[in-house]
Amino acid sequence: xxxxxxxxxxxxxxxxxxxxxxxxxxxxxxxxxxxxxxxxxxxxxxxxxxxxxxxxxxxxxxxxxxxxxxxxxxxxxxxxxxxxxxxxxxxxxxxxxxxxxxxxxxxxxxxxxxxxxxxxxxxxxxxxxxxxxxxxxxxx
Length: 140
What we know:
The structure is a single chain. The strands form 2 sheets. Strands 4-5-6-8-7 form a 5-stranded mixed β-barrel. A two-stranded antiparallel ribbon has the order 2-3. A hairpin with a 6-residue loop joins strand 2 (32-35) and strand 3. Helices cover 18% and strands 37% of the residues. It contains 3 helices and 8 strands.
């Protein structure tokens, strides 16, 4: 069922006329990872669809905006709201995307659900979050 859903989403993203590709959380959830027992670092194994269809492309994804370090302009987009513990329980590193904003996003409420556009980068070196959106902008 998940494969059918992802296939439909993929086909819709190909045939839409928008400049951005719709990126959905189930596609990011296809990422597997190992954890080094000594360093504790995660080593992601990205699915081919992320590498071939989304990496380096302008994407749009919606989620909950989480300020990590406002002074350093460090934010994340999460599949889950912070108030529900955005990175615990069943949430893993595939449920959070680092955001590097094109311009200062200004002030907003934690857990604001927003669509974000920007270029998707995959972090293969095991340090930091698995996914980064550079030149991020809040849509709408």
